[in-house]
Amino acid sequence: MRRGGRPGRMWLWLAVGFASVALLGCVDRSPAQVVSLADLVAEQDAYDGSTVIAEGTVQVHDEPRHVWIEDADQHRVEVFPPDAVADLVGQRIRVTGRFTFRDDRGRGIDIADLEVLGEAPTAVAPPVAGG
After folding, report:
1. Distance (Å, rounded) from C-alpha 96 to C-alpha 53?
2. CA gyration radius for the chain?
3. Could you tell me which residues come within 8 angstroms of residue 72 by beta carbon, excluding any fewer than 6 positions away?
4. Does residue 26 sit within a domain?
5. How many helices (H) and strands (E) does the chain have?
6. Domain of 100?
7. How many domains does the chain have?
8. Would the pLDDT of 107 be above 50?
9. DSSP SS3 for 55
10. Does the pLDDT value for residue 45 go beyond 60?
């Protein structure tokens, strides 16, 4: 009679242990860095996989549906999941999350935290001469 249970059980626990260690190694433990959308656009490869904090105005396009944040110079970064901010179109927000860049997907931030900053500033018309 064998003691200690089935021999396969030991291998299962070892496999689970190694998988857990491997997954912990994939977690981004770096602190979030405040980054402008212009920097994310210009240095997208350098920030890929980093946790970032970025601000912009929420915009949406329906066909195909996608939601992004942009700055006054129209530097754009898509945000995921889109439903988290779709009802905030025109609002300025600050998002914290993991930034990714892929040729087939573009630039995106997977939202971990979100703060609404208020309505985006509107352009002010220059004063009319003589009046």
Report:
1. 4
2. 22
3. none
4. no
5. 3, 6
6. 33-119
7. 1
8. yes
9. strand
10. yes
